[in-house]
Specification:
heterodimer, A: 324 residues, alpha/beta, five-stranded parallel beta sheet, 9 helices, B: 257 residues, 29% strand
């Protein structure tokens, strides 16, 4: 296959995201199948030292430019577009995160090629790529052939283990120059999550509610159960969007990554974006009326019943046991 | 200020989805569709901006079963004009939909100029691209996605974009701009059925013909199937009380309660 395999490294405020290493692990396999080198691309400003940590790649292409200091997708995409024109990679693996997805879609739009979305696995075969993509909120998977050149592939978190993409070897870093147009988008500042609320990443037990909770008033059912179990209430995106729980309680892609001892998912379907934030929990128990909800594929125990009936029953059962 | 909202319907995943006879697309015979949830948030964000600054909201969508209900509901909420694109086969790739929208936006009188084009940042059927960035590219406008808040002052939109872990970023974007909305600042508003019925009587939905566009290439579905899962939860059967009892036992064994 003509062209190298690239991984867009994601660094936020001086630290690599885990997904960078997951993509290097996947990229290594794909590069092996394609018989091509694996290259990581790091875009930043004064970040050359960071590039050393990408030793799992054969080479790191490091572009240093003041305009790449902040997360401005149009600048990162313009830098990548220049490098792609110059070096003609076969594929660019882009982290499907809120930070990097915009880089991928702007880049694809600039190059006039598709942006393959929701990819969870990728192979190089016979000069093209074959991807497995997760569609319809995890209800279907598609085997997809990608003939676009270059192939811009948005890869979901957890496609591989991050550890498989780490290396103690210092990376071979090649400096590359990019000239960037003036930014239309101006990054002003980071907004930190409001302090003072419960830190759901530090809880042993999380009672997490999703769309199945139906109304704001029903949150109280989850709170009462959390109180008796000694945990806290968290939620999936729809509950946060409705304003029923604050942003600090959100589990998933845009919210927190939680690893409690018990994650009790009530009325959560388990879309890939949600799974991203909770699959590391030690014990996952799911209650959902839809017996085919994707949450049951990663839960250890499940019950296909209505959470509105389960929560009070569970509260009573726990209280009884604790009182006994 | 004038806002154009791009919307589409997607399969309702609350329903059971089946693979069609071709083995690579959904069986559409009993498929129920709903407005893409992110597009509903894009509409809400447009309504919030109109509440504050006045102006006009135009809706643009592809024709589909039940789309009139979606459009009349949006009109009842406060949108001013609704345009649907007729003659498009269902289940188009996102890249093709982008081309159709792009052509219609350029050629249909009154859709432009606009201060903002808002659309959902993504949809559950977006396989070969997301909508907003290529529309922005075509118009030469700035774009930003994963947006959860928009404030307008003069010709600049100050937008909040989500990152991860509850951290967000604030950006200034010169308008006109295309924004991919993740969530509106407030949940989508409720509109009484009576108001929707009134909109059905008083408002009209315009139809424009779909332009002939070249089908998108570069990404092709070979096969579609329900996911093969590595594992499945051990299901606890019984009444809610029985499930609670059994679960309590399991949790107690693990020292969790």
């Amino acid at each position: 296959m003509a062209g190298n395999i690239w991984v867009l490294a994601e660094a936020s405020r001086g630290q690599f995201s885990e997904i960078t290493f997951e993509l290097l692990a996947l990229g290594r396999e794909v590069a092996g199948q394609a018989g091509a080198p694996l290259e990581a691309v790091l875009l930043g400003s004064n970040a050359r030292e960071l590039a050393q940590k990408l030793g799992a790649a054969d080479t790191v292409l490091y572009a240093d430019n003041a305009a790449l200091a902040d997360p401005v997708p149009e600048s990162a995409a313009a830098a990548l577009a220049q490098l792609i024109k110059e070096k003609q990679p076969a594929a660019v693996l882009v982290p499907l995160t809120n930070i990097s997805v915009d880089v991928g879609v702007v880049l694809a739009a600039q190059l006039g090629v598709p942006f393959l979305n929701y990819c969870k696995d990728l192979k190089a075969e016979g000069g093209n790529f074959t991807a497995t993509c997760v569609l319809y909120g995890g209800k279907m998977e598609a085997a997809v052939s990608v003939s676009a050149k270059p192939a811009i592939i948005g890869v979901l978190p957890s496609a591989r283990q991050a550890d498989a993409g780490r290396s103690d070897k210092a990376a071979t870093v090649t400096d590359v120059a990019v000239t960037l147009p003036e930014q239309k988008l101006k990054f002003k500042k980071y907004l930190e999550p409001a302090a003072g609320d419960v830190d759901i990443t530090k809880q042993n037990i999380l009672i997490s509610v999703g769309r199945g909770i139906q109304t704001k008033d029903n949150i109280e059912l989850a709170q009462e159960l959390a109180d008796v179990m000694g945990g806290a209430v968290s939620g999936s995106r729809p509950v946060i969007d409705q304003g029923w729980l604050p942003l600090t309680r959100q589990v998933g892609k845009s919210g927190m990554n939680v690893k409690p001892k018990l994650y009790l998912a009530l009325g959560i379907s388990g879309a890939p974006e949600h799974q991203e934030g909770m699959r590391g929990a030690q014990l996952i128990v799911a209650v959902n009326t839809d017996a085919k909800a994707p949450i049951f594929n990663i839960a250890h125990y499940g019950a296909a019943i209505d959470l509105l009936e389960f929560a009070p029953a569970m509260k009573e059962a726990v209280a009884k046991r604790k009182g006994a | 200020m004038d806002i154009l909202v791009l919307m589409k319907v997607v399969p309702d995943v609350v329903e059971e989805l089946e693979v069609g006879p071709d083995g690579k697309s959904l069986d559409t015979s009993f498929l129920r569709t709903i407005l893409n949830e992110r597009d509903d948030h894009a509409l809400e964000q447009a309504l919030l901006l109109k509440d504050k600054h006045g102006g006009k909201i135009t809706l643009l969508t592809l024709d589909a079963a039940d789309i009139d209900d979606v459009l009349f509901t949006a009109l009842a909420k406060g949108a001013d004009r609704a345009v649907k694109i007729g003659g498009v086969e269902s289940a188009q790739s996102t890249q093709t939909v982008v081309k159709i929208f792009g052509d219609v936006i350029a050629k249909t009188p009154g859709l432009l100029p606009a201060d903002l084009i808002l659309t959902g940042v993504s949809a559950i059927d977006d396989l070969d691209g997301l909508m907003a960035a290529p529309i922005a590219q075509q118009l030469g406008w700035p774009y930003t996605g994963v947006v959860t808040g928009v404030t307008m002052a003069d010709k600049t939109a100050t937008v909040i974009k989500e990152f991860a872990g509850g951290v967000r970023g604030e950006y200034d974007v010169p308008t006109p701009a295309v924004l991919g909305i993740q969530a509106a600042e407030k949940p989508p508003r409720y509109v009484p059925v009576a108001k929707v019925r009134a909109a059905m009587k008083s408002a009209t939905i315009e139809t424009v013909d779909a332009p002939a566009v070249e089908a998108a290439a570069g990404v092709e579905v070979q096969q579609m199937a329900k996911p093969q899962v590595g594992g499945h939860a051990e299901m606890i059967e019984g009444s809610p009380e029985e499930v609670a009892e059994k679960l309590c036992e399991l949790l107690a064994q693990r020292g969790l309660i």
